Amino acid sequence: MEFFTLNDGNKIPAVGFGTFQIPADGSTYKAVKKALELGIRHIDTAAAYFNEAEVGQAVKDSGIKRDDVWITSKLWLQDYKYAEAQKGIDISLKKLGTD
Question: Which residues constitute the domain of residue 8?
């Protein structure tokens, strides 16, 4: 698996699995779980996708150490000021069930 090294030294997998437009009706859970089974270690989601909880549950249920899975999420457009960003991040982390 190829990685990109970020400015802070962290490495992010070069290939990720996007969850845009996958409904939160169990479909996101199944798709993410399968992606992880196939070796994908970068999952992309967003508050606006309404599927963060299924992403988080699939990662948890995969049996893969959380440190081995990179999760990318994005804030709502209205949450880009500092206080709103903090709140939005906390909400996403809660939905994802991670820190």
Answer: 3-96
Q: Which residues are catalytic?
A: 49
Query: What is the residue-level pLDDT of the chain in tens, covering all 99 positions?
Result: 899 999 999 999 999 999 999 999 999 999 999 999 999 999 999 999 999 999 999 999 999 999 999 999 999 999 999 999 999 999 999 999 998
Are 32 and 24 in contact, with CB atoms under 8 Å apart? Answer: no
How many domains does the structure of the chain reveal?
1
What gap in Å lies between CA 2 and CA 99, rounded to an integer? 25
DSSP readout, 6-47? -TTS-EEES--EE-TT--TTTHHHHHHHHHHHTT--EEE--G
pTM across the whole model: 0.93
